[in-house]
Specification:
By secondary structure, the chain is of the alpha/beta class. It folds into two domains: about 210 residues, Quinone Oxidoreductase, Chain A, domain 1; about 130 residues, NAD(P)-binding Rossmann-like Domain (Rossmann fold, 3-Layer(aba) Sandwich). It is built from twelve helices and 16 strands. A hairpin with an 8-residue loop joins strand 1 and strand 2. The radius of gyration is 19 Å and the shape is globular.
């Protein structure tokens, strides 16, 4: 099968589009024909050797976590899926394996693809949306009416966080750059702080949850914005945030929590319901064929992607992906210039996704108006 492998740690020069052996599913796994995958910053962080202690020096290395595709074979103990099912999933193996025509995933990590999404759209969901959901629901204990601030609202995790918080009836304040205001408004958020003109940490409002989806601001900077029992959630564990999270476990009052995403078919099922109810959609800045993963990595590393970069694996998906992207831009109510189709027109940094799984230990983290969503 065709795949993109990393032959060493370092630049995108180590990425190679080549032929490798097709994986064989274990008894509890599905073999997936991958129609589309997507780029998450953890992918290029692994490639650059940031997680070398976990990944070792065994090459070639196959990266990528998100998959949307068709089940072609199931293991002997699999009962929930059969050949022909259209699924989406975050691979539960580390360091991944989604940059390929075929991938394997555990039954417990997969879910039937939303009926209202194409493979290209669905591939943008698993890691980023599960990070946002698990941060807000499980760590933040979000409730209807909660005041929630999302820092990095136009990024991969942030765009889903805004929509999930809205779907859960929270009052959302979003932080993004000027060029992404219209995008964030299109997601249903109308209290926006433009970080290019205003420091959100000087806001006078108080929040139940601050979700720093880009790990740009520390607990110390955000603490004064939290209500007495507010929760600060970050996507990037630092020595300071780890110590603070441990200390606030026993201290009363404000808490610090670190998000480490887990692969969950059950959570994807919940997200599927929200998607089919038209409460969540993917934001896709650009699509690339599998042979151009290196190019997509380079763009992701620049730290200004609005939404997600999606990789279409089979040729028949490429045209569809381009059309979906155009449709998405029109739905957002913004032109190509604002949506960031060009490489220079991108949104909040990719660090919001550079987080992400139990194995890695990496945690996934505008024009002000009156403080309530319309």
């Amino acid at each position: 099968m065709k795949a993109v492998i990393s032959n060493g740690y370092g630049s995108t020069d180590f990425l190679e589009y080549t032929s490798v052996e097709q994986p064989t599913p274990k008894s509890n796994q599905l073999l997936i024909k991958v129609n589309a995958t997507s780029i998450n910053p953890i992918d290029w962080k692994i490639r650059k050797g940031y997680l070398k202690l976990l990944t070792g020096n065994k090459f070639p290395m196959l990266l990528g976590f998100d998959v949307a595709g068709e089940v072609v074979e199931v293991g002997d103990s699999v009962t929930s899926f059969q050949a022909g099912d259209q699924i989406y999933a975050r691979l539960d193996s580390f360091p991944g394996g989604a940059y390929a025509e075929y991938a394997v995933v555990s039954e417990s990590a997969a879910c039937l693809k939303p009926n209202t999404m194409t493979y290209t759209q669905a591939a943008a969901v698993p890691l980023a949306a599960q990070t946002a959901l698990q941060a807000l629901r499980d760590l933040g204990k979000i409730q209807p009416g909660h005041d929630v601030l999302i820092n990095g609202a136009s990024g991969g995790v942030g765009t889903f966080a805004v929509q999930i918080a809205k779907a859960l009836s929270a009052q959302v304040t979003a932080v993004c750059s000027t060029k992404n205001i219209d995008l964030v408004k299109s997601l249903g958020c109308f209290r926006i702080i433009d970080y290019t003109t205003e420091d959100f940490t000087e806001d006078t409002a108080k929040y139940d949850i601050i979700f720093d989806a880009v790990a740009k601001n520390s607990f110390a900077q955000c603490k004064k914005l939290l209500k007495p029992h507010g929760i600060y959630i970050t996507t990037l564990p630092t020595p300071s945030s780890i110590v603070q999270s441990l200390l606030t476990l026993v201290w009363p009052g404000k808490k610090v929590k670190l998000i480490t995403v887990r692969s969950s078919g059950k959570d994807l099922g919940y997200l599927k319901e929200l998607i089919e109810a038209d409460k969540i959609r993917s934001v896709i800045q650009q699509t690339y064929p599998l042979s151009e993963v290196a190019k997509a990595h380079s763009i992701s590393e620049q730290g200004h992607v609005a939404g997600k970069l999606v990789i279409t694996v089979f040729q028949r998906e490429q045209g569809a992906g381009s059309r979906e992207q155009g449709i998405g831009n029109r739905e957002q109510g913004i032109g190509n210039r604002e949506s960031g189709i060009g490489n220079r027109e991108s949104g909040i940094g990719n660090r919001e996704l550079g987080i992400g799984n139990r194995e890695s230990g990496i945690g996934n983290c505008i024009n002000s108006q009156p403080k309530s969503d319309k």
